[in-house]
């Protein structure tokens, strides 16, 4: 007897009502006794020839409705796993195709020719990208020139190439590639100039070194040009950043004094600075200095402080006077900082997260301390990926 697929699990497998996991199954597909899948109403034709081999996407076989349901379910189920129910769950925000503005590709010498792309799922093999439906066109357009740049090299290499769209063009950071001699150096400089790179950095095992940067590289955050240190964190899509920043403004717009914790370059600090005084705390020194310098040049009421919130969280007594807090921690969450928030009297907390599991653990601490989970906004800015983000509001 056939069995319907009812949902998609966290790693992208379809799951039947009896709990059987089926690779590349969509909700509504029917699993036959012999293991064959009969396509259902939510199955889509994957747009990319590299799917499912390429590890960059796991969900191109889902239609738009099933993809949105997957993102929503990841967030809601994480909350429910901690016994939490949001008073409101907003519609899912999905970033459009070809909107990724940053990505790290691998480059190897594949039998005498350069192979550039993402790893195959679960392996160290590299898929040689000939098309990509997630990368912004400007980033993908650089892949073939990179192949031409590497083509003369006959030695074995395994390099990482991080590409980021900035205000001045593409920031290209190459790690693990030897560049020796005048000819190799001139070839790199010619490449950077000919393709209008904003910056080219090399990391040969001692950290990134600027190889080409004709003008300071910036990214615009909240309408403010902010210096962009090589390797700094930036939201994966401008579209996703706008959705998350809108949540921050909607929820904290009435606050007069806001703390932006794990502030990075100031993505949310600059979004809020026009309506609130903001304390922006960040541990990475380069990002902190970039945020502070941009705020000063723009004349904004942002106090940027250099502080490691994992080792030295803002204490409950230090949070007195703040009527809003925004935190956007790394994937591990913000356990110690959340404990201090729970002990504070801050009335509104906006928590942005790229990991529903660690977010739900922290959310439980806030709710146990008397906060209500007032709203959840699921965000899928890593389109067709199992990577899910969210914005959430907690109020006292």
Concise overview:
This protein is an alpha/beta fold and 396 residues long. It folds into 3 domains: 1-43; 69-96 and 234-395, Vaccinia Virus protein VP39 (Rossmann fold); 102-215, Beta Barrel (OB fold (Dihydrolipoamide Acetyltransferase, E2P)). The chain is 25% helix and 27% strand.
Notes on the structure:
- There is one protein chain.
- The protein has 396 residues and is an alpha/beta fold.
- It folds into three domains: 1-43; 69-96 and 234-395, Vaccinia Virus protein VP39 (Rossmann fold), CATH 3.40.50.150; 102-215, Beta Barrel (OB fold (Dihydrolipoamide Acetyltransferase, E2P)).
- It is 25% helix and 27% strand.
- An eight-stranded mixed beta sheet has the order 6-20-21-19-18-15-16-17, sandwiched between helices.
- β9 and β10 (169-175) form a beta hairpin.
- The model has no long low-confidence stretch (mean pLDDT 95).
């Amino acid at each position: 007897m056939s069995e319907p697929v009812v949902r998609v699990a966290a790693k992208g497998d379809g799951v039947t009502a009896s709990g059987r996991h089926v690779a590349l199954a969509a909700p509504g597909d029917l699993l036959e006794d012999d293991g064959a899948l009969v396509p259902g109403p939510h199955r889509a034709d994957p747009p990319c020839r590299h799917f499912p081999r390429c590890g960059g996407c796991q969900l191109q076989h889902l239609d738009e409705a099933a993809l949105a349901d997957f993102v929503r379910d990841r967030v809601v189920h994480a909350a429910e796993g901690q016994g939490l129910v949001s008073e409101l769950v907003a519609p899912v925000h999905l970033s459009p195709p070809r909107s990724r503005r940053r990505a790290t590709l691998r480059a190897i010498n594949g039998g005498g020719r350069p192979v550039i792309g993402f790893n195959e799922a679960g392996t160290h093999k590299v898929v040689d990208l000939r098309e990509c439906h997630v990368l912004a066109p400007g980033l993908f357009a650089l892949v073939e020139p990179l192949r031409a740049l590497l083509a003369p090299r006959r030695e074995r290499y395994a390099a990482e190439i991080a590409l980021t769209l900035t205000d001045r063009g593409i920031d290209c950071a190459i790690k693990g590639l030897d560049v020796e001699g005048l000819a190799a150096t001139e070839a790199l400089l010619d490449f950077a100039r000919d393709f209008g790179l904003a910056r080219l950095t090399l990391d040969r095992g001692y950290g990134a070194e600027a190889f080409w940067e004709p003008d300071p590289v910036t990214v615009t955050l909240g309408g403010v040009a902010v210096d962009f240190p090589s390797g700094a964190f930036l939201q994966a899509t401008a579209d996703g950043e706008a959705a998350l920043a809108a949540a921050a403004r909607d929820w904290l717009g009435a606050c007069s004094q806001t703390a932006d914790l794990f502030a990075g370059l100031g993505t949310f600090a600059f979004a809020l600075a026009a309506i609130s005084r903001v304390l922006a705390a960040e541990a990475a020194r380069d990002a902190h200095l970039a945020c502070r310098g941009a705020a000063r040049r723009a004349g904004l009421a942002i106090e940027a402080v250099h502080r490691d919130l994992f080792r030295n969280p803002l204490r409950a007594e230090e949070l007195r006077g703040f009527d809003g807090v925004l935190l956007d921690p790394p994937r591990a969450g913000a356990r110690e900082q959340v404990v201090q928030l729970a002990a504070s009297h801050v009335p509104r907390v906006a928590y942005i997260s790229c990991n529903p599991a660690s977010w739900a653990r922290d959310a439980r601490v806030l709710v146990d301390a008397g906060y209500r989970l007032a709203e959840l906004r699921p965000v899928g800015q890593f389109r067709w990926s199992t990577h899910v983000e969210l914005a959430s509001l907690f109020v006292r």
